[in-house]
Specification:
Distance between the termini: 30 Å
Low-confidence stretches: none
Strand content: under 5%
Radius of gyration: 14 Å
Mean pLDDT: 95
Helix content: over 70%
Shape: elongated
Number of strands: 0
Order of helices and strands: HH
Amino acid sequence: MKVAVQLARELVRTRHVSDATFQRALECLGTKGMVQLSAHIGYWTLVCTLLNTYEMVLDPS
């Protein structure tokens, strides 16, 4: 699903998604899939932000 990766990259890098990417993703994923993908991207962005802010290192095990 190249369009999902494109959407994630645009959203994380620019905080916006182009109309063209949005339409392609909507056609491929549907409304429910778009909401789920956006929620996952937001969640993992939050997790990464917290880990980076507090300079946390995860246990390799």
